[in-house]
């Protein structure tokens, strides 16, 4: 199975020439993906305890937060692998499980949409 966290970082580096930023000393593995000019986030990579997401267990799971159009957030959350945004506005942001439930291509499309929705450079 592909490591989707690595694939996400590689996709963003190749397409937008953006490297992850690690802004929190308390969470050194949490990575913000930001626009070059404005420094606004368009994605956030985290490893969150499953129970914090409403899932069973306490072990960590890699997730990606992305901004989405409000009209698709609700329908995506009905599908496996999508959850209400963790620590973000739940109307405009979505959490995607990086456990290979959601296909890589679909994740990349969501990242690209989020990049444009947050005001690309």
UniProtKB/TrEMBL annotation:
Pfam families: YjbR. Signal peptide: none annotated. It comes from the Bacteria. InterPro entries: YjbR, YjbR-like_sf, YjbR/MT2646/Rv2570-like. This is Uncharacterized protein.
């Amino acid at each position: 199975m592909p490591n989707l966290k690595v694939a996400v970082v590689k996709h963003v580096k190749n397409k937008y020439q953006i490297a992850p930023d690690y802004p929190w000393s308390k969470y050194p593995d949490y990575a913000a993906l930001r626009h070059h000019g404005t420094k606004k986030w368009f994605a956030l990579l985290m490893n969150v305890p499953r129970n914090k997401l409403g899932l069973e267990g306490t072990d960590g799971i890699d997730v990606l937060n992305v901004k989405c159009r409000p009209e698709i957030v609700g329908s995506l959350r009905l599908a496996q692998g999508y959850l209400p945004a963790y620590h973000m506005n739940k109307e405009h942001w979505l959490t995607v499980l990086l456990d290979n439930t959601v296909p890589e291509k679909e994740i990349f499309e969501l990242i690209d949409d989020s990049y444009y929705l947050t005001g690309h450079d």
